[in-house]
Amino acid sequence: MRGGRRPRVVYSPKVRKNRNSRGKHSFEIAELGDGQEEDDHTAPTKKRTKMPPSEQRSCVPSSNAEEILEEKLRSRILHNEEEEKELEANHGMSQSYFRVKEGNGPSKKSVNKISDIGVVEEQELQEALAKLIPKHEKEQSDLMQRYRTCYQKWKFQLSCGFGLLFYGFGSKKNLLEDFANSALVDGAAIVVNGYLPSVNIKHVVFTIANILWETKKKMKKKKQSASAKQKKTNGCTHPLSSNSLEDLLAFLTGDEELPPVYVIVHNIDGPGVRDDDTQLTLASVAASRHVRFLASIDNVNAPLLWDKQMACTQFKWWWLHMPTYAAYTVEGIHVPLLLAATGAVKSVRSAALVLSSLTPNAQSVFRCLADFQIAHPDDQGLAFHRLYTACREQFLVSSELTLRAHLTEFKDHELLNWRRGLDGQDCVYIPLPLDALTKLLEDLSK
């Protein structure tokens, strides 16, 4: 083979492998004519062209490659569109957030006044409320009947030393009183209305102690003979004669066996009993072995009235969720009606009623002060010597003593207050808004 022709290596019908000067492989296409032999070294060769790199690496036909490329481009476009939509959605959320923030910013001051609201008189509103037809009376009656089946269970819990605390929507006044009249018949019952504006807690403790004292005397009468009883009764002194709250509470903690006294407190979170001293006294009463304690609450913050020791050691609360859905007719008597004439309107009515009972000179002095306050709304008030000079010029008073007597009368009726002005002098002013003060002067002129 040394002197013969060098054979050519062909890897495919049309692709040849050559080695270039650097020793790397390259592929060339050899176009063979029809009838031309592949090993004919003398035949002229046509121009050979290099394949592009993309076609060199791919053995897949060009039509399939285009389809695959189009599919990849389509998937990439869809992916980009989804990303753009997500970005737009997030951008819209952020924009809406800032728009809301901008909407909550400072706005123009409204010119509306509370005094412009057309409120009605309290009597008219009460008459309208009385005409309302009650609803769901049958369902409320069925609920109360179901609660009556728990009376004996509640009584047993009381006998075990627990205090019953009723909570839930609706007035529980009728429920507690019906429970006392039906089941708590083995002892006296004392009712405390905590929804009242004020409650005399000392009187409550004295009543409990007095009941226990009377019960104690009756029990002694049964054990003693008639003659011995007479001597004993005449010689004994009442243990409550000291009239001290500490002595009354000490008497309640006695060890003698006596019938229980049931204490029922409606709205133990009410305005009359919610102060700390009253709650401590009620806790001491509830801790007595002779007292069995029941109470109701309607305020969501009522548990804040007691600490752990009071709730768990003295009251020993057993919480009972007993919603009645009954109207707070009795409890709401002392609560001001929201839609009735209140605030400045009610103050004007009260002030007009008080001024109508005063002398004409006193009314004139009040009018003089009111005119100055309306004319000078930014001042701290009217100095005493200036008021005296103005009243003296109108011959309303003859001395400072007379003027001070009128001002004291105004102060007692809460028609006037004192405060120190910017110059350090004592000034008097009427604690009413300008519109209410103007309305009051119009009523006085009629």
Automatic annotation (TrEMBL):
UniProt-annotated location(s): Nucleus
Q: Which UniProt keywords apply?
A: DNA replication, Nucleus
Name the family.
Belongs to the ORC2 family.
What is the organism lineage in this UniProt record?
Answer: Eukaryota, Viridiplantae, Streptophyta, Embryophyta, Bryophyta
> What does the annotation say about its assembly with partners?
Component of the origin recognition complex (ORC).
The UniProt annotation puts the region (Disordered) at 1-64
Name this protein carries in UniProt: Origin recognition complex subunit 2
> At the top level of its lineage, which domain of life is listed?
Eukaryota
Residue stretches of biased makeup (Polar residues): 55-64
Composition bias of kind Basic residues appears in: 1-24
Entry annotated with the keyword Ligase:
no
Species in which this protein is naturally found: Sphagnum troendelagicum
Identify the residues that the record assigns to the Origin recognition complex subunit 2 RecA-like domain, covering every copy.
Answer: 140-321
In what residue span(s) does the Origin recognition complex subunit 2 winged-helix domain sit?
Answer: 376-433
InterPro entries recorded: ORC2, RecA-like_ORC2, WHD_ORC2
